[in-house]
Amino acid sequence: MEGGQPIRIYCKGDTTLNMAVRGNELRLVRDDPNDESQVCDGVGKLTDDEERPAFALHWIQDYSVGRVTDDQGRRAFALVNNLGGTRRVVLISTKNNRQLEMAPYGDCVKLSMLWSLGVQLPGGYSEVRVLSDLSKTLNGINGFVKEGTVVGIYSAEPHSIHAIWKFDPINK
């Protein structure tokens, strides 16, 4: 699969919290440029003795999944994280349809790995919708927007601060 522009992902409820990978879950965590599961804008310090590799670890919004669109004609994409140099994609859990998990990302793209953006709202925020069911969106579970909140999917709430997201490009 092709790459895309590195992005930072956060919800309107607290712009200092980014979506990040923790184990096999997605969580809201405090914005930290040294946390490779959130963002990376090039070479930066990890510890006093260690440099971050120049290949940059980050989220990307990958549109190279073909010409797939949702029922409203909006283009599909995959949310991919390059944690540890391994490309992993966000997908809907087969165990619990509200949970998200990470899976290896390669040439075979499943429908459960694809998303689309809803209507752009003021400030550049949008719902991030499950491609196969536009009534389900990326969501801070239980309506919480605090450090450690699990990010999953829930019924669309287009005006809730825990359910509308922004993807900000990161300049390399």
TrEMBL record:
InterPro entries: Ricin_B-like_lectin_EULS3-like (IPR040249)
Domain of life, source organism: Eukaryota
The protein's name in its UniProt record: DUF569 domain-containing protein
Species the sequence originates in: Oryza meridionalis
